[in-house]
Give the backbone structure.
Amino acid sequence: MKRWAWILLLLTFLGGCSPRFVYGWLDWIIPWQVDDYVTLSSSQEGALDAIIQRQLRWHRHHELPLYLEHLERLQADVAGPLDEETVLRHMNEASEHWYRLFAHLLPDIVGLIQSFSDKQVEEILAQINQENAELQEKYGELSLSKRVKRANKMMEKSMRKWLGKLSPAQKAVIADYNLNRHNTLALWLAYRQDWIDHFAKALRQRSDREQLERELTLLLVTPDELKGQQYLSQIQENRRRLARGLITIHAEMTPRQSRKLNRELDDLREDLEYLIHRN
């Protein structure tokens, strides 16, 4: 849900902080995140630093202009009435940005993984399995009513970032969506376990570069192939329901909410333009 709230507003890929601020720290944030999963040797740290610098240059020159173009189309669309086709198109395009990034990263990821020792691989898998067990315990113990309440809270928080204070009617749309959408928790947890199993197999057979590339492409670039028809159908139906809810919320925006949304989008556009043209 967090991923799709308000069409992602496309570019909350930087977590709600100023893109200028976060982008300037990515060469520090990424190694810090990697360190949560595996202890790198000094040569691997150097290789990762080189990958980050190379990929950030590519991302700034190639991807950020695409994000800016998408943002401009989004801003034009939210200035008028929305329809389901338009909202779904923006959702799909946001997904394409994500998967295109992984497709470009793949050769570097493969090379780095092939440098891992057996000990490093087991360190990674132990951390992933621990996180998955904690996730299963966390969500498995939650009743449906508590999950709905948590989802409502997350969606309302995301919406307030862009619209400000929500009306009771807008909150009701969010509550109705979370109460009546397909409950995909069991399918999601099963998919996560299948994903981890494939990833573990790929890491343990990493000497076969061709197989490693195939597995990582499946996991990172075309993960829908792992989800099964039932799960995919429910995801797609939930997405359509979300689109209809967003259309209703958009139609009920007050002038004050519209002004805030435009300010937020303008600020985001200015940040992207700054990053694109920065020397």
About this structure: Residues 1-16 have pLDDT under 50 and may be disordered. The two ends are 36 Å apart (CA to CA).
